[in-house]
């Protein structure tokens, strides 16, 4: 039975490329022959919409097969998984009801580990090689749930003047999560939306490179209009336009993540 590796994609700053990175890494993994489950943990449904048209995404959001229904009922996540149409890639969709998740978690026993318990049977079966969780841009009880259910955290960071804003809070939050889930490890920081022509790109890379005990992924993703076109067509760019610059870069980043996750 294979070991299932759980990776959270998190950053408390919005616009970091977190959902796009999660979507493309998951799709690239599936295209490499891995079995992947993605969990959309954000009330904005962006991860779900990256794989389904809006009509289908909202159908899941209004129905029973979504992450909110699983967490509130504290049921085995297996009952909430849907196929994406991409071979080897499944998802637990999200819903706007996730806006109330902090309130719903507050009254639960051992509220920091509800998601972990919902994932226990899925992990025990060993069917999936990877479970990828897209987190909302917050640092609350729900994101703590995600951290406590994960083995690794990947932190996407936008290569912009404000891209590093709040990163110290993210690191501190991960340290707090490790008190509950000691196995949790920050896999690394992934730079997104990079423009090598801009001075702040170099500054971002230098600043991240100088941080102690912070792993910076060698592969970063540059700005590419193909990403926006792929989003408009509800597909990850690695599936929508495989030969585009961003698709190639996301694939390289994915290989790096797989390599590190297999350690």
Explain what you see.
With 263 residues, this protein is an alpha/beta fold. It has one domain (5-261): Rossmann fold (3-Layer(aba) Sandwich), CATH 3.40.50.300. Helices cover 44% and strands 14% of the residues. It has twelve helices and seven strands. The chain has helices at residues 18-31, 46-49, 54-62, 67-73, 101-106, 114-125, 141-148, 167-180, 199-210, 225-232, 237-240, 245-261; strands at residues 5-9, 36-40, 82-83, 89-92, 130-134, 152-158, 185-192. It has a seven-stranded mixed β-sheet. Strand 6, helix 8 (167-180) and strand 7 form a beta-alpha-beta unit. Helix 1 packs across helix 12. The chain is globular, with a radius of gyration of 17 Å.
Element layout with pairings:
Elements: E1 5-9, H1 18-31, E2 36-40, H2 46-49, H3 54-62, H4 67-73, E3 82-83, E4 89-92, H5 101-106, H6 114-125, E5 130-134, H7 141-148, E6 152-158, H8 167-180, E7 185-192, H9 199-210, H10 225-232, H11 237-240, H12 245-261
Parallel strand pairs: 1-5, 1-6, 2-4, 2-5, 6-7
Antiparallel strand pairs: 3-4
Strand order of the largest sheet: 3-4-2-5-1-6-7
**The CATH topology is what?**
Rossmann fold
Percentage of residues assigned to helices: 40-55%
CATH class annotation = Alpha Beta
Radius of gyration: 17 Å
Structural class estimated from helices and strands: alpha/beta
Order of helices and strands: EHEHHHEEHHEHEHEHHHH
Concise account of the structure shown:
This protein is an alpha/beta fold and 263 residues long. It is built from twelve helices and seven strands.
């Amino acid at each position: 039975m294979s070991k299932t590796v759980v990776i959270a994609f998190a950053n408390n700053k919005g616009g970091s490329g977190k959902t796009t990175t999660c979507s493309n890494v998951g799709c690239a993994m599936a295209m490499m022959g891995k079995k992947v489950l993605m969990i959309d943990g954000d009330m904005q449904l962006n991860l779900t919409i990256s794989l389904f048209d809006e009509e289908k995404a909202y159908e899941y959001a209004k129905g029973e097969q979504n992450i909110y229904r699983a967490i509130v009922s504290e049921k085995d996540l297996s009952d909430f998984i849907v196929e994406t149409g991409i071979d080897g890639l499944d998802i637990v969709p999200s819903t706007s009801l996730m806006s109330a998740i902090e309130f719903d978690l507050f009254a639960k026993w051992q509220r920091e580990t509800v998601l972990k318990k919902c994932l226990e049977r899925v992990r025990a079966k060993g069917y999936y090689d990877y479970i990828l969780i897209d987190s909302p841009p917050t640092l609350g009880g729900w994101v703590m749930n995600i951290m406590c259910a994960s083995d690794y955290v990947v932190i996407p960071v936008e290569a912009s003047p404000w891209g590093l804003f709040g990163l110290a809070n993210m690191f501190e939050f991960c340290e707090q999560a490790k008190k509950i889930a000691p196995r949790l490890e920050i896999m690394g920081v992934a730079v997104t939306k990079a423009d090598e022509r801009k001075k702040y790109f170099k500054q971002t890379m230098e600043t991240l490179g100088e941080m102690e005990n912070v792993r910076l992924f060698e592969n970063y993703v540059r700005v590419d209009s193909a990403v926006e076109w792929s989003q408009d067509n509800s597909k990850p760019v690695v599936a929508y336009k495989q030969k585009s610059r961003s698709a190639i870069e996301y694939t390289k980043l994915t290989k790096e993540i797989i390599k590190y996750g297999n350690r």
